[in-house]
Design brief:
Helix content of chain A: 25-40%
CATH topology of one domain in chain A: Enolase-like, domain 1
Distance between the termini of chain A: 44 Å
Structural class of chain A: alpha+beta
Structural class of chain B: alpha+beta
Oligomer: heterodimer
Shape of chain B: globular
Helix content of chain B: 25-40%
Strand order of the largest sheet of chain B: 2-1-5-3-4
CATH class of the largest domain in chain B: Mainly Alpha
Largest sheet of chain B: 5 strands, mixed
Distance between the termini of chain B: 45 Å
Number of strands of chain A: 12
Shape of chain A: globular
CATH class of one domain in chain A: Alpha Beta
Radius of gyration of chain B: 16 Å
Strand content of chain A: 15-25%
Number of helices of chain A: 12
Number of helices of chain B: 6
CATH topology of the largest domain in chain B: DNA polymerase, domain 1
Largest interface: A-B, 34 and 41 residues
């Protein structure tokens, strides 16, 4: 690990643009040990007043420092936003969920092995160096929204559920602002090292959830082992039905792109339609129309198709959860 | 930098490089070698300790960020002449082979049983509001952050189930 100056922030005003924020540290410290990241100044924000889950309008305001385990077990999250509890519980381990924070979880880096190995070319770690993953061994890589410069995925589960819930990220800094989660993470294009819209000197202070959407909530995660593994693909679904037709459909997908993926055409097809296998197959076809397999991980295309269809069958009562 | 750690009921003042993890502070600077270093990347759970009663990975925690917390290691849970219920059950059920992951397993299980008592659901819980059975599936899921390369899992699960019975955990209480 490279040397750094440790600072403890007493207020948000203390944060300087050249400081790297640490809270749970579960990803950042690991990357610092590998010297993939080498921040000269580390500012510890765990003593700032950024906790708490409080009502905001008809929804909820989740403080950036709320730990994953507390959020998953929070009674209002369990009751009104169960897809979020399920996504959190599907991620990491009991120990890591006790450490990881809401804000930090949104900022976690990809688990592309070429990003972690400093001997390998990586445009995310070293802009312009090339991408050794393309043409290399691929498994946890992207099938949607990738580019010739980067095929890494955003690895988390929490943000996938937040995307299906239309969450908004509250940001403090020189000009406080609120950014819909849909706009928070960026696709790689030719600047894969720029992963979010967060600017130097800005900090996530909260995540805001709109009014509870009701309906059936599902989080289906497919991974290489039964627990404590990142998603190969995941589906967060909030599905409402009325009079035998789908009245509400919010579907977000994890493990397949540099951001939690959502496709309005898929949801438009489902809304107002009667649930059927033919409908769900068509939804999957629309979702995967732009999909591209860049290597061995193209198995994710049929995997995501099946995961979507299974989730929709489950959420509409056509089949009980496996 | 000057760091104060509150460990197993005692207070220690240390002069450490800011890069020092809680795990290295425990093992190298305080001589508390019960806590083990396995992967040093948060993947194996051998370094699990309790921070204000909650299980965490000491390898992914900077010592300087742990100063305000009460840290409990395996040495603080029990001693050879006064074993904790889980320590006793790991012995009775032979819940290990080489023993390297055992301190982390026991620290993790200690907090895990409290999480169940507090009504925390898991990935395999059918209902987010319980009741949570202390089934093999629940224990395996809740303990998935602790790997055992000897694969003593069968006896680890048995030890945890037995210890839950002796610490007042009841299936109908969850």
């Amino acid at each position: 690990m490279r040397e750094f100056t440790y600072q403890r922030a007493a207020s948000i005003a203390d944060l300087s643009p050249d400081a790297t924020i640490i809270a749970g540290g579960t990803n950042l410290l690991d990357l610092m040990k590998l010297e993939v990241m080498a921040p000269p100044v580390l500012v510890d924000i765990t003593h700032l007043d950024l906790g708490g889950v409080e009502p905001e309008g008809e929804g909820l305001r989740i403080g950036a420092l709320v730990r994953n385990s507390d959020l998953a077990a929070h009674p209002v999250i369990r009751r009104d936003y169960p897809v979020l509890s399920r996504a959190l519980l599907a991620g990491a381990s009991g120990q890591l969920r006790n450490m990881a924070t809401t804000g930090g979880n949104l900022m976690q880096r990809t688990r592309c092995p070429y990003f972690y190995d400093r001997r390998m070319a990586c445009n995310k770690r070293d802009p312009g160096a090339g991408c050794a993953a393309i043409g290399g061994v691929t498994r946890n890589h992207a099938i949607l929204g990738a580019s010739d410069h980067c095929i890494a995925t955003y690895p988390g589960d929490m943000a996938v559920a937040l995307r299906a819930l239309d969450a908004v990220v509250e940001i403090d800094g020189p000009a406080p602002r609120k950014v819909p989660l849909s706009d928070f993470h960026l696709l790689p294009g030719n600047t894969p090292h720029v992963e979010t819209v967060l600017e130097p000197g800005e900090i996530i202070t909260a995540v805001i959830l709109p009014a509870p959407p009701g309906g059936q909530h599902r989080y289906r995660k497919v991974r290489d082992r039964a627990s404590y593994a990142f998603a190969l693909v995941s589906v967060a679904a909030v599905i409402g039905t009325e009079d035998g037709r789908i009245s509400h459909a919010a579907l977000a997908f994890g493990g397949v792109a540099a951001k939690p993926w959502r496709d309005p055409d898929v949801e438009a097809l489902l809304k107002g339609s009667e649930p059927s296998d033919a409908l769900f197959r068509e939804a999957a076809e629309i979702l995967l129309r732009p999909a591209r397999g860049w290597g061995e991980h193209q198995f994710k295309i049929p995997l995501l198709r099946r995961a979507l269809i299974a989730t929709l069958r489950d959420a509409t009562g056509m089949e009980t959860a496996a | 930098m000057q760091i104060t750690l509150h460990l197993n009921g005692a207070t220690h003042d240390l002069d450490l490089d800011p890069r020092t993890t809680l795990l290295d502070a425990l093992r190298h600077h305080l001589g508390m070698t019960g806590t083990k270093k396995g992967c040093d990347h948060g993947q194996c759970g051998a370094c699990t300790v309790l921070m204000d009663g909650r299980r965490i990975n000491a390898c992914l925690t900077l010592a300087c960020m742990a100063q305000d917390a009460r840290i409990t290691t395996i040495e603080g849970l029990g001693s050879p002449d006064r074993l904790s219920p889980l320590q006793q059950q790991f012995l009775d059920h032979d819940g290990f082979q080489c023993g390297y992951c055992t301190p982390g397993q026991i620290c993790s299980a200690t907090a895990m049983l409290e999480e169940i008592e507090a009504g925390w659901p898991s990935h395999v819980s059918e209902n987010l509001d319980g009741p949570f059975e202390l089934s093999h599936a629940e224990i395996a899921e809740r303990m998935s952050g602790n790997l055992c390369r000897c694969a003593a899992y069968a006896n680890i699960v048995a030890a945890i189930r037995q210890a839950a019975g002796t610490t007042g955990w009841r299936e109908d209480a969850a």
